[in-house]
Amino acid sequence: MNDMGGFYQIRGERSSELLFDELLERIVDGTYETGERIPGEHELMKSFGKSHGTVRNALKMLEASGCIRTVPGGGAVVTMRHNVLTETFMELFIRSKVTIGQMYEFVRLVEPELIRRYIGRFGPEESAAIDKALARLENAFALDDSGEAYRQIVRIHMFIVDCMKNPMCSSIFHAVCNILLYRITSDEKSRISIYDKEEMLQAHRILTKEIKAGDGDAACDIYADAIKYMFYDNQGEDERRITYDDDEIVSYVYGLTMDSNVSAIAYCQILGKIIRGEYKPGDMLPAERDLAEKMGISRPSLVEALAILEFRGHIRREQGRGTIVEPVNSKGVDNVISVMFRRRGITFRDIFDLRAICEPVCFSLAAAARNYSHVRELNRIVDESMDESKNDIERYMSYGTRFDCKVAEIYGNRMLYLVEMIVSSFTHQLLGSKLKNLEPHNAQQFMKQIYIEHSELIDFISVRDSVEVRTLCEKHLKGIADAVF
Percent helix, strand and coil across the chain, each rounded to 5? Predict the structure, then answer.
């Protein structure tokens, strides 16, 4: 797989990234408004003095970020394509080998708090729509169609999350639900099954009734009954051991057909090989000329696919070396969130609220699962944060991310860890940029307060007090929220 021979490099690869940033700024500041056609490739080449390849690369990066869509015969139009974040989350979860059971566990742990927090956002339209979804579920059970019943249950929960109107939460749950739906779509004999249909149906009836009534506490109480009947294998054991390695899910995500865009098909084929492990982290992809020939496509179409793969964090192109497969990372998700944040498709509050939901869960689970080496590592991170950051708020915030990620890692749910890593990193970066101009005395006071709170959290983690850890974590996050919002 380590096929040597570098890719042909478009002259000035950094130029395409700079052009991407320039065009993005024009979209963000309203120079190019949503629905408006941006200048064509030749016009951009003339305006910016760039090569055709550089311009096409920049446009593909904009398309991968959800900012534009290509209209056949009509050029590129500015859009706000939120589902690009769902796609990118799916790719991250798939490449990370998150198991079906870990996804189920994430839903079971996080969705109740989502309902509790956002239940007031349900209105008449949402209530009518969820009634229709419940009716479809009842019909599926009446026909004894367990596959269709499973699909409708997943869609009900997807719809419930959508009603919370937090695009971060919606993107993550859509990613999970699409993977679960794919499991059923591709294999009706999946080991995932539903049993005790009447109990399942009654639990969902009560759940939707309490949500429509606006009773968050009651909805959370009944939630456990609504979901406990799912995700068991043939032996009646928890499904968390089941994994998947279907690279075809990538094509399923994008709804590819033989008539799809050539670069999109190439993208899915290359990503599928990376997911399967045919190309491992650190491997060089075949030379660009060879790869295009093997796939039977033109080099420009391949370059478009590679531009998207790079933006999504799957590969890295280096001048003089070629194209290298990257380890699993959150770069693609981070890139898309950053673009959506700049375009006001996602707010700081959306991201912080997701953190405020996930982080207390991580801390309480870590308290139950920790060993003494974990406690020592957490203490080391906290001590280093004060010793090495001095008055540097932004650097101190990077230690906050390390601390949160270490806590999330302790329990061992890969999906929970990935989500916490992303939201903690993004909110700490934003907080650091907001607070970096504090006076030295105020900065020291702020960092000392965080140090004390983190130390208290470690104390309760060390004695495995999950309840107190969760309470302290919620208090810590509320204090930050009160200061920022």
Answer: 70, 5, 25
Contact 147, 58 (CB under 8 A): no
Q: How many CB atoms lie within 10 A of CB 380?
A: 11
Residues facing 322 on adjacent strands: 318
65-81: b (≥16 Cβ within 10 Å) or e: bbbbeeeeeeebebbeb
Q: Which of 405, 412, 479 lies closest to 449, judged by CA?
A: 479
Cα separations in angstroms, 343 against 36, 194, 338, 453: 15, 42, 9, 34
Token code pair at residue 184: 């059923």
- HSE-CB for 440 with a 13 A CA cutoff: 2
Please tell me the distance from the alpha carbon of residue 76 to that of residue 69, in angstroms, as a whole number.
6
Q: Which two tokens stand for residue 444?
A: 């020291």
Helices (H) and strands (E) in the chain, counts: 21, 4
Residue with tokens 């590592």: 377
CA distance 192 to 153: 13
Angle (deg, nearest 10), helices 41-48 and 13-28: 100
**125 is written with which tokens?**
């339209």
Q: For 455-472, write each residue's pLDDT tens digit.
A: 999 999 999 999 999 999
Task: Give ∠ CA 207-211-213 in degrees, rounded to 5.
Answer: 115
State pLDDT tens for residues 208-242. Answer: 888 888 888 888 888 876 766 554 443 333 443 44
CA–CA gap between residue 243 and residue 239 (Å, rounded): 9
Residues in CB range of 144: below 8 A, 6 or more apart: none
Amino acid 43 reads: E
| Residues 415 and 93 sit within 8 Å (Cβ to Cβ) | yes
pLDDT one-digit tens code per residue, 52-90? 888 888 888 898 888 998 877 778 899 887 789 999 999
> And the tokens for 182?
């794919």
How far out from the chain centre does Cα 300 lie?
A: 29
| Cα–Cα distance measured from residue 278 to residue 2, given in angstroms and rounded to the nearest whole number | 10
Q: Helices 466-484 and 348-369: crossing angle, nearest 10°?
A: 160
Distance between CA 5 and CA 10 in Å, rounded? 15
Beta bridge partners of 325: 315
DSSP 32: S
Q: In 29-123, which residue ranges form alpha helices assigned H by DSSP?
A: 41-48, 52-64, 83-95, 100-118
pTM of the complete model beyond 0.70: yes
Q: pLDDT band at residue 347, thresholds of 50, 70 and 90? A: very high
